[in-house]
Specification:
By secondary structure, the chain is mostly helical. It is built from 14 helices and no strands.
Length: about 425
């Protein structure tokens, strides 16, 4: 681990600052939207717009890097992120916020592609798994840390938007000033969605539903908490509890996934998550209750992404794994775009508890589908290693992780 930190500390530091900025803007917009009088459905469109941009960035950023190189792309996109963060409190209009969220989602996606290709180049097959684990911890830890900064100022003013802008501006200094060489860049043509579905129906359906769940916690959690009457510090604590649950329970779930039938684990996580979210819809939204429920929800939802990837890989040949990553990310992105819009409509119809009802419904649907798929075919004879990744990872990071996991499995067989 020391060697990994020594070779990639600048990247981890920069990404940590970026994720603090990203985590702050998501929570702040939910609170500020309520202050500005935006409707729930307007805020759901604003939150969904981020994932539209993110999906577009995952497709276009590789071509940008091939044209002008990692350094220029990273610096340009990070500069745009810094500028957009300041524009949010300046232009308080839902349509303008939607456009800005599309842009910032695009920029963050491109930054992830660039950073992960750098990380892949800075590591070897012996330490790439450790590097990716640290990278994911930095990402989720940055989002959790961001919630502590949300309470340091007035969300109706400008200061809280300036802080993440400054952090983002500072983030690319250690990366661009480091002496690490820029890596060559190559991408794999994605596998067709039809072939991917034939390989793993549960993986594809699960990715679509988990995209909606992730968008709920990343985009609409602060909107829910604000409408439920929580104070700004309590909103930050609630959002922090969700990602803290994902951070702490990711590895126990991963440990189990290498030892029991992954479909049973998917079913178990979804069942617990559905019951937890149903309780959130029925119980009064006092601060302690929503934080406990949020922690458990995050702990069950966040590992699902990596669990579904590992399960899908169990039915793929090694040479198809990288090609499948693009399709899996695309399916997840479609779910993430639709999630906030559907939540917004439900919350408009039945109030804040619609947040919990929506997530509980998706978890229940995935529980039922996983149970049904278990009756359709047997579990694979051999399974690959679990790789702890989150939906914010790009196709570059996912492909690198899949290659590392496959190499580890080959080494164990030998």
């Amino acid at each position: 681990m020391i060697s990994v930190l020594g070779s990639a500390w600048a990247l981890f530091l920069g990404m940590g600052l970026l994720m603090v900025g990203n985590g702050m803007q998501g929570t702040l917009l939910g609170v500020r939207g309520e202050i500005e009088g935006f409707s729930t459905f307007e805020m759901s469109l604003v939150m969904s717009a981020y994932f539209v941009g993110f999906l577009g960035g995952s497709r276009l950023a590789p071509e940008m890097i091939r044209r002008v190189g990692h350094v220029r792309v990273f610096a340009a996109l990070a500069s745009f992120i810094s500028a957009i963060l300041i524009l949010f409190p300046t232009i308080t209009d839902p349509t303008a916020w939607m456009l800005l969220r599309v842009l910032i989602g695009f920029c963050f996606s491109g930054v992830y592609v660039t950073a992960e290709s750098w990380l892949n180049n800075a590591t070897t097959s012996t330490n790439r798994g450790q590097a990716l684990s640290i990278y994911m911890i930095v990402q989720m830890g940055g989002i959790v840390a961001a919630q502590a900064l949300v309470v340091t100022g007035d969300p109706s003013g400008f200061i809280l938007f300036i802080v993440p802008s400054v952090l983002v501006s500072m983030s690319f200094a250690p990366i661009l000033l480091s002496i690490s060489p820029t890596p060559p860049f190559a991408t794999t043509k994605p596998m067709s969605l039809a072939r991917l579905y034939r390989s793993s129906p549960l993986g594809c359906v699960g990715m679509l539903l988990s995209g909606g769940m992730y968008a709920a916690q990343f985009g609409m959690a602060s909107v829910y908490a604000t409408q439920a009457g929580l104070s700004v510090p309590q909103v930050g604590s609630f959002v922090g509890a969700i990602f803290l649950g994902g951070l702490l329970l990711q590895y126990p779930v991963g440990w189990l996934s290498d030892r029991i039938d992954r479909r049973r684990l998917i079913l178990g996580c979804c069942s617990i998550g559905a019951i937890t979210c149903a309780a959130g819809a029925l119980l009064p939204p006092d601060p302690l209750t929503v934080m406990v429920v949020g922690f458990l929800m995050g702990g069950m939802i966040n590992p699902l992404y990596a669990l579904l990837i590992a399960y899908t890989n169990d039915y793929l040949e090694y040479e198809d794994m990288s090609a499948a990553s693009g399709g899996l990310l695309f399916i997840n992105g479609l779910g993430a775009i639709a999630g906030p819009i559907l939540i917004g409509a439900l919350m408009t119809a039945i109030g804040p508890r619609g947040f919990w009802v929506f997530v509980a419904t998706l978890l229940a649907l995935l529980t039922a589908y996983a149970a049904w798929r278990m009756t359709r075919r047997a579990s694979p004879d051999e399974v690959g290693s679990y790789l702890a990744v989150t939906p914010s990872v790009s196709s570059v990071g996912l492909s690198a992780g899949q290659e590392w996991a496959a190499e580890q499995d080959d080494g164990e067989e030998e």
